Each structure stands twice: as structure tokens, then as C-alpha cells.
Amino acid sequence: MVGLILIFIAASITNNFVLTYFLGICPFIGVSNKVESAIGLGVATTFVMTMAATVTWLIYHYILVPFNLVFLQYVTFIIVIASFVQFVEMFIRKVSPPLYKALGIFLPLITTNCAILGLTLFMILRNYSFLESVIFGLGAGVGFTIALVVMAGIREELVFSDVPEPLKGAGITLIIAGMLALAFMGFGGIISG
Amino acid sequence: MIKDFVKGLWRENPVFVQVLGMCPTLAVTTKCVFGLSMGLATTFVIVSSVVVISTIRKLVPEQVRIPMFTVIIATFVTAADYFLKANFFEISKALGPYIPLIVVNCVILGRAEAFASKHGVARSFLDAFGMGIGFTCALVVLGAVREVLGAGTVFGYPVMWEGFTNWIVMVMPAGAFITLGLLVGVFNIVDKRVKSK
Amino acid sequence: MPGDNIKKIFENTIVKVIVALAIVGAVSGATLVFVYNYAMPKILVNIARETEKGIKNIFPEAAEINDSEIKGLYDIADDTGKIVGYAFLAEGNGYQGTIKLISGIDANATQLKGMEVLESQETPGLGAEITTKKFKSQFINLSITHPIEYLKNRKPEKDYQIEAITGATISSRAVVNILNKRVEEIRKELKK
Q1: How many of the other CB atoms lie within 10 Å of CB of C41?
Q2: DSSP string covering B173-187
Q3: Chain A residues touching B192 at Cβ < 8 A
Q4: Nearest to A110 by CA among A33, A170, A174, A31
Q5: Per the confidence metrics, is the pTM higher than 0.90?
Q6: Which helix (DSSP H) or strand (DSSP E) does residue A190 occupy?
Q7: What is the pLDDT of residue A193?
């Protein structure tokens, strides 16, 4: 139980996916302009991450390994993730049109979010058990959401500040991300191997 | 035709202008040599995928375009990964999971979707090759800055004076973000100067 | 005309989609089988060579390296054929990712003979110092009858202590924990 909690905290805070592994930077820089949309995207991504971790774990350990097909790992994983995003999109559209409308444009973006493929690869590399993988997926999603929301909050304020011309846009966003990474480093050491 | 190649180097540089493919850019550039290897691996994947995609572009049904492109890219990435593991074991270990992550490098899918699915093989090849080289250059530059300040070396050769204190922060994630942010700024300034002349 | 029927079927989008995906999938699979067959033997050679190099660093006198009867252990023999110790792989989580080590113990399982880092993603300049000679040499002839301990900014006093790297306590601690866990398992196995 303690192990599971540690994995969750490590994935969400101390080894935050966005700020220490550089995963999921594209939406982090592109989308995080408003807190509201950041939360929406974060929740959708968390859901896909948890499900992707679950499904790819089962496929890897019950299909790829027994049949000696490990070299198909990347191809299989990306197909699973892409179809999952598609499925989630259709599901949300059917069940809750308002939610679909709110998330709409962000959903297809999730496939090319490297945090999800990265998550599944890390999970295999670290030999996580099934339960650990699910928690790892959930934690990584929460961590992604935290980073995204914090960033969006700062950028909302940034509108009122005087940023040097050449740094406007991507430049200042990256520098802020660097400072956030520094801040998150302060959490390092809470959890050890 | 030559324009297709050149634009990836500067005007549409995938890293400095389009700000795409960030995760390998930031993650592996602690050292020049890693940046170079990652850049070359990505160039290989982008060129071969784009050649295949532009060859079969008319046979691909509209609805499954993206999944098919992704599968093609993932295939080449797996090939590159095994090739590196077989012949450049040390480098492949250092780059670790960031090699498979080339699959979701948005630069590649971006070129496949925006250029290769609409143009012939020759032009797509030049476009992809230019993007690949532009990407590689950006990674080497970023790697050089971080390696010089963070470890006092370039490609492993010491270049700083004796007694130079390494800026450890440069090789940490925070340093990656800040360096790239400032480089983007420098790029914009230079670009403006060039344009106004 | 039967020909027209076939044509109609192929004009059907769903069929087209499935056929296209199946072809791409098959070609991709076939290519990867080919790549796999080319690369896998070389990769195995690389891994074996790396393990051997690590063992030779830890046991300079090693003449023969054989798989032990105990799973995961290598018997190390000198040129007279006498067993001088056992080598083993160990891994666990470091500060950034997995740390993979190779290490060895003497034939009586009372001392560590050394430690080499095979894989790590620790922070360059800090945690990555675990791969330096200064840190690694502390593990040569380290007593393992007592769990290994690390000290911060202090020179070791007892024969089972090492000094942690300044600024990288977590990575140092990770190495110690990984070794302690694995050594305990092995000592239990060897006692049987």
C-alpha cells in the first residue's frame, strides 16, 4: 500500500512528468493559456493515461511477451493509445454532449501527447505490477494536470506584464517552465528509491 | 525545390520557430553528442517515413490517414531503436526511452500530414531532410550551450578555463527550459536583424 | 457480372480501410521481424560483453565466468579453477530512473568486491557521480556482514560505511539500498 502511494506521489509531484521528464510539453506550451481549459485537458488526459496504462500493461504481459512479439511494442502501444483517444471522444460525445463541447478540440490532441506513450514505456521499463501501473498512470495524469493548471494561472497574469519583445510567446513560457522546474526540484528527496 | 530543403534550417526551423518536438529537444541535450545522436535518429525516421508516406499517399483512405502514418513512423522508430542498440550500445543506453518517444515527436507527424501527404516523393524528401537537419542543428546548439556551462566541455573536450565552476543547473531540467527559452529569444532577435536588412 | 461485384466491394470504404490497415500492419510487422533478426544477436553480444567487462573490473583475477547454480549469480573462478567469488546484477529506482548495477562478493560472502554502474539516468554532474571511480572504489572490500550504511559529509569510520556524494544523497542512498537488498537475498541463498 505504501509503495502505491509513493508511486502516486512520485509520478505526480517529485518526478513530475512535464517538469522533470519533459513529457507532454506540446500541450503545456500550446494550450495552457486559460485555467479552465487547462483543467479540462488535464482531466481528459488523466483519464486516457490511466486507461492506456491499464490496457497496454495487459497487452504487453499477456500478448507481446508470451508470443515473443516484444519488437512490436511501440507500434502496438501507439495504436492502443490512438484508438483509445478515438473511443473516449465518441463515448463523451454520446454520453455528455456539453462535456464534449467543452473538451472538443483538446481530445484529438491527446494522441500526440508524448506523456502518454512515455508513461507506458516507463511503466514497462520499471517492471511495475498491474496495480502499480494503474496508479502510476493516474499519478502521471494528476501531475500533468497540476503542471498545466499552474502554468495557465501564471500565463493569465502574464498578459498584464511587460515581456521583452523577442521573448514573447514560446520564449517566456519556456523560461517560466524552467522556474517551475526549479520549484518542483524542492520536492525532490521526499521519496527515495 | 531547393527552397523545400532550406526552409527547415532557418525560416521554419522546427525547434526555434515552430516550437515542436520539445520532449526530445529538452530531455537529451545535456551533452552535445546526445543531441547529435537524437537529431540524426530523428532525421532518419522523418526522411524514411515521409518517403514511404508520399509514395503511397494516393492509396491511403482519408479516414485512416493518421493511424496509418503513425504505424509507419512507429515501424521506422523501432528499426532505428534496434539499430542503435545493436551498433551504438552506449548512446542508446544514454538516450533510453527518448528514442521510442520519437514516435510522438510532432515534427514528424506534422511534416507527414502537412507536406508529404500532398506532395511528390522528391519534394517531400527534401522538405523532411531540411526539417531533420534543422532539428539536429537546434539540438546540437542547445546541447553545446548546456554542456559548456554545465560541464565545461564540448563533445567531451574541455573548453573552459581551469577552475571554472560548472553550472549544475544547466544540465538539470530547469536549465533545459531556461536555455531553450533564451535561445528562442536570441533566434528572434537575429531573425529580425536579418529580415530588416 | 461477378467482376462488378468485386469492384463494388472494393469501392466500399470500410473494406478499403480494413484492407489498407491490414496491408500496412503486415508490411510493418514483416519489416520489424527482419530488423529484429538482424539486431537481436548483436544486442545480446553487447549485453554479454558489458556484463563481462563489469565482472573483469570487479574481479581482475577472473579467468572463467560461469552461470551459477543459483539463479542470477555468476561463479567467478581464477586461472587455477578455484572459485574466488560471485557476481550478480542488481537494479532499483534512483533519483530520475532505474539504476542497474553489477557487483560481486567474495567466496565467503563477507565482502563486496566492487561495484559498476551499467545503466543510470541520474542528473549529470550530481547523481551521475555514482559512476566515478572516487565513489565506486568505496565499495571495494566493503564488509557486508552488516548492511551497508552511507554517511553525509563525513569520512567512513566502520568497514561497512561509505561516504555519500555531496549534493546527491538520493542517488548514493539508492545505490546502497539496491546493493543491500540484493546482497541480503544472495547471502540467504548461499547459506542454503
Answers
A1: 10
A2: HHHHHHHHHHHHHHH
A3: 166
A4: A31
A5: no
A6: none
A7: 39
